[in-house]
Amino acid sequence: IDQREEQLMTLNERSVQYNILRREYETSRELYDAVLQRMKEIGVAAGVQKSNISVIDEARMPDGAFRPSLQKNLAIASMLGLMIGIALALLLEFLDSTIRRTEDIERLVDRPVLGLIPLLRPRDQRATGVRGRPERTLTHYSATHPKSAVSEAFRSLRTSLMFSTPEGMPKVLLFTSSSQGEGKTTAAANLATVLAQNGASVLLIDADLRRPSVHRDFGIPRSPGLTDAISRVSTGTEPEHPVIHGSGLDGLSLMPAGHATPSPAELLSSNQLAKVLSDCRRIFDHVIVDAPPILGLADAVVASRLVDGVVMVAGAGKTGKENFRISVQRLRQVQAPLLGVVLNRVDLDSPEYSYYSAYYYNYEPDKGHREMDENEAVPHRKAS
Question: Is residue 2 one of the residues assigned to a domain?
Fold first, then answer.
């Protein structure tokens, strides 16, 4: 019995030790599982960071203090500014749909550029004594400033027209443009002026019956004029007053638009107009017809069949390329005798016209002519 009791006590002690060891085991096991789970989480996080970040270069201590280079920064900024400026200029050139250079015209029409008329800047207007309404003073600019660059440009136009056909300058010329405000009246009037200054007898006819301006620019009555002359041919009667007026310049006569008419296109396409032009052809050395714009109207197109030559006027930076192309196409549809194009308001300060600028501006503006007030017009002679 004593031996069994001793064995039982031994088993109890071992049972207590077993339970203690078991609890320690379970505690250690839970701690191990927690540490293992944490290590897995850290491993996953380390793998994600490693995939996004790589060492490019080891950090090194600088050898000395760093200071920015002003010259280098200015050079880089200048180069970037130049590149941006060039890119912007090319973009504006691409987006610009207007005629600016002679090359634009040559790509659109197989006719020569007969002349370049310089842009009269405000400083040039002050130097030449022009003030008031520009369109009014520019119409007879070659008469008031015969030694100016603009007048020289119109004399060059006269020379180009003299060699435009094998027979010389066509006797009856019609000036037109794509749309209003491109300078057709100014070009027609100044060409008539330089022809008269050269000793020829010239008649300037205002055939823009919808928006006539020659009578205002030269200070003469609007009527009697072209419509009255056509009416005279239709009825076979003589007008009460002459239809041809003086301009104040020897050799240059004027035929204003005349009384308003409800059907300008019919008048300009009539046989009576052909008879009027035929009569003028016998009396004058040159007949210059200022016609309406082409787009939206039939007037200039129908009248172009009755003349010897047509001159298109395009405003640099104003005339749209597509409008110009359509206008030329309409003239070709009626087989109009298109001689060429006059590019008006050319900026001679631009690089592509540097040669013309150096040439034209050797001519000093007239300083002997007095200024023209905006309410003053060129004096006209008694109607003849």
Answer: no
Q: Tokens for 68, please give them.
A: 């920015």
Q: How far apart (Å, rounded) are the C-alpha atoms in residues 308 and 326?
A: 21
Compute the residue count for the chain.
Answer: 384
The CATH number given to whatever domain includes residue 117 is 3.40.50.300
Which of 311 and 3 is assigned the larger pLDDT? 311
Domain membership of residue 62 (yes or no) is: no
Question: Which pLDDT belongs to residue 8?
Answer: 78
140 domain-assigned: yes
Contact 274, 77 (CB under 8 A): no
The pLDDT of residue 128: 46
Residue 205 phi/psi, 5-degree rounding, is -105, 130
* DSSP state string for 167-230: T-S-SEEEEEESSTTSSHHHHHHHHHHHHHHTT--EEEEE---SS--HHHHHT--S-SSHHHHH
Task: Determine, yes or no, domain membership for 235.
Answer: yes
pLDDT at position 206 over 50 = yes
**Cβ 143 vs Cβ 186: under 8 Å:** no
Taking alpha carbons only, the member of 268, 304, 346 closest to residue 177 is: 304
Query: String of b and e for 348-382 (b: at least 16 CB within 10 Å)?
Result: beeeebeebbeebeebebeeebeebeeeebbebee
- Among 126-135, 231-240, 357-366, the minimum mean pLDDT is found in 126-135
Work out how many domains the chain is built from and give that number. 1
Q: How would you class 135 by CB atoms within 10 Å of its CB: exposed for 0-12, middle for 13-18, buried for 19 or more?
A: middle
pLDDT of residue 90: 77
Cis preceding linkage at 146, omega within 30:
no
- Token readout for 28 is 């250690």
Q: What percent of the chain has pLDDT over 70?
A: 81
Among 82-86, 154-158, 168-172, 348-352, where is mean pLDDT lowest? Answer: 348-352
For residue 340, the SS3 value is strand
Give the structural domain span for 168.
103-360
Please report where in the chains the tokens 């050319």 appear, as a residue: 346
Q: Are 205 and 257 in contact, with CB atoms under 8 Å apart?
A: no
Task: Tell me what the mean pLDDT of segment 262-280 comes to.
Answer: 90
